[in-house]
Amino acid sequence: xxxxxxxxxxxxxxxxxxxxxxxxxxxxxxxxxxxxxxxxxxxxxxxxxxxxxxxxxxxxxxxxxxxxxxxxxxxxxxxxxxxxxxxxxxxxxxxxxxxxxxxxxxxxxxxxxxxxxxxxxxxxxxxxxxxxxxxxxxxxxxxxxxxxxxxxxxxxxxxxxxxxxxxxxxxxxxxxxxxxxxxxxxxxxxxxxxxxxxxxxxxxxxxxxxxxxxxxxxxxxxxxxxxxxxx
Length: 231
Hints:
The structure is a single chain. The chain is an alpha/beta fold. 43% of the residues lie in helices and 13% in strands. It contains nine helices and six strands; from the N terminus they run H-H-E-H-E-H-E-H-E-E-H-E-H-H-H. It has a six-stranded parallel sheet, sandwiched between helices. Helix 1 (9-19) packs parallel to helix 8, helix 2 (25-35) runs antiparallel to helix 8 and helix 3 runs parallel beside helix 7 (176-191).
C-alpha cells in the first residue's frame, strides 16, 4: 500500500502543499480548476466490454465531463486501456476492477447498491427513461453491456431502472462509446443545473488532487516518503 493512501486529512493537505512546488504553476492551477467539476454522484459500470477501444473511449468521455469513478466488470473479457484512444484519461480517473472468481456483475452491482447507488441499465429494448427524464436526486450508476449482446440477464435483473436513447432510424442501437457520450454529457449537464449535492467532499478532492500530483511528478513516491518521515 502507498504510504499516502490513508493519510490524516490535515497531513494530506500539507503533503499537497509540499508536492505543488515540484509541479508547474499551470499544472496545479488546472488540477484545482478541474477538481471542482468532478463528481461521484453519477458513476459508470462497464460489463465485459471486449473491444478495448470502445471502453477506452468511454474513459475519455468520463474524464471530459467530470465522472471520477468507472467500474470495470471482467467476467470473460479482461480490459486493457488503449492508450491511443484514452489519451491518458485513465490517469485522472479511479478505475475499480471486478475480476475475481464468481459472477463479477453481481459483485459490482451489489457494492454499488450498498454504497447508495441506484442501478440504471442502458438498453434500447425496455421503454424506460430517456436522458432528459431520468431522475437524478439519488446517486446513479449507469451500466453498459457488450457491443453485440448488450447487458447480461443478471445485470438487467439487478437494475433498479432503465434508460434508452430515443431513435427514429432503421438501426436500433448505437456504438457503446457513442451512447455513453450522449448519456454522460446530458446527465452531467443536468445535475450541474440543480441543487443536488453532486460535487466531491473536501476530503475526496484532496485524495484525488494528491493522486494527480503524484502521477505528474518524477520520483513522487520517494518525495512523499521523505516528507512523511519528517512530518
